[in-house]
Amino acid sequence: MKTLIALLFLVCSGLAQALPEAVRKAEAGWRQWGSGEMSWLGFSLYRATLWVVGEPARTLPTTAPSALQLDYRRDIPRDRLVQTSVEEMRRLGASEAQLQRWEPELRRVFPDVKEGDSITGVHYPGRSAAFYHRGRATGEVADAEFARLFFAIWLDPRSRSPSLRSALLKRPET
Questions:
Q1: 53: CB partners within 8 A, 6+ apart
Q2: Is 24 exposed, middle or buried (0-12, 13-18, 19+ CB in 10 A)?
Q3: Cα–Cα distance for residue pair 87/116, rounded to 1 Å
Q4: CA 143 from centre of chain
Q5: Which terminus of the chain has fewer Cβ atoms in its 10 Å neighbourhood, N or C?
Q6: Which of 172, 173, 130 shows the shortest CA–CA distance to 151?
Q7: Sign of CA dihedral 119, 122, 126, 128
Q8: How far is CA 108 from CA 9, 40, 43, 158, 168, in A?
Q9: pLDDT tens digits for 35-82?
């Protein structure tokens, strides 16, 4: 019994440390889904972890609030993060007019990241996306289509990293 209680405490404390406090307080019932490494030319860029609100048997990351946490393995300047996000959203179907509106929003919510930094994006389907750096809010983009296409970079079947997508979408055991 003591072992079970210790294990439950460990699991709950891991959640408490992984998601920003504001995210945990805004929605109850966060569960970790999958996690995986993103590499480019053999260099590890970040570890991605997907969190979803609700029971895995009844929930899809595209319909419930979800959070994508990126733990960076190297320094990446804001301009590179913004440019890559814009390119990927364009590839996934964003129009040039949308991208012109969204690029300044990305510059507003993304910082330069250093090795060891964490950025968490929270997708509220049909509503918006909120962003956190090192656990502090950096801003929200109140545009449902922006939120859908931004998270599609990792979760859409056309993702550039099918293996990372698969790792993120692996349902946890219930």
A1: 27, 28, 29, 30, 31, 59, 64, 65, 66
A2: middle
A3: 25
A4: 16
A5: N
A6: 130
A7: negative
A8: 37, 26, 27, 27, 26
A9: 999 987 778 899 999 999 887 656 666 778 999 999 999 999 999 999
